[in-house]
Amino acid sequence: MATTAQLFEEPFDADEYIERLAWRTPGGGSKGGAEAFDPKRLLEEFENHIEELKQLDEKIQRRVEKLEHQCHREAKEFAHKVQDLQRSNQVAFQHFQELDEHISYVATKVCHLGDQLEGVNTPRQRAVEAQRLMIYFNEFLDGDLRSDVFNNPDKIKEAADIIQKLHLIAQELPFDRFADVKAKIASKYHDLERQLIQEFTAAQRRGEIGRMREVAAVLLHFKGYAHCVDVYIKQCQEGAYLRNDVFEDTAVLCQRVNKQVGEVFSSPETVMAKLIQNIFENKLQAHVREKLDETRHSDVEQYLKNLYDLYTRTTLLATKLAEFNLGSDKHTFLSKLIKSIFSSYLESYIDMERDYLRTRGAMILQRYYDSKNHQKRLIGTGSIQELKERIRQRTNLPLGPIIDTHGETFLSPELVVNLLQETRHAFERCNKLSDPSDLPKNAFSIFLLLVDHLCVEHIDYALEIGLSAIPSSDAKNANLYFLDVVQQANSIFHLFDKQFNDQLMPLISSSPKLAECLHKKKEVIEQMEVKLDTGIDRTINCMVGQMKYILATEQKKTDFRPEDENNVMIQYTTACSKVCAYVSRQVEHVRKSMDGKNVDTVLTELGVRFHRLIHEHLQQYSYSSMGGMLAICDVAEYRRCAKDFRVPLVLQLFDTLHALCNLLVVAPDNLKQVCSGEQLTNLDRNLLHAFVQLRVDYRSSRLGRHFS
Question: Is 695 helix (H, G, I), strand (E, B) or coil?
Answer without folding.
Answer: strand
